[in-house]
Write a structure and sequence with these properties.
Blueprint: H1 3-16, E1 26-31, H2 34-40, H3 46-62, H4 68-74, E2 77-83
Parallel strand pairs: 1-2
Helix pairs in contact: 1-4
Amino acid sequence: MASDLRFLSPNCYISDNRLAHENVRWLIQVPRLYSLYRSSGEVASFEEMLGNIFEPLIAVSIDPAANPELHYFLLTVVGFDSVVSTDRDVFGSANWSLDNSIS
């Protein structure tokens, strides 16, 4: 997965259109699609999926000049939310136990 490319789309839109404002904040919703990404071969592990999401954010936090658009976007982000479709349980969380992990 090239999450850094996926992040560029919304943050460039926000940056290009100057949608950030001191009274506007963004919440990033991350869909619970690990099982789909794993079964399709897009990621090999849950760790890889989390890295795809958070490594670009950490990198731009360390060096804002590396991606000014993403940095500008992150200035307005207040949190992350993990969302799942209400019509299906993507992770099968009803079956989770210490012996039955998602990875």
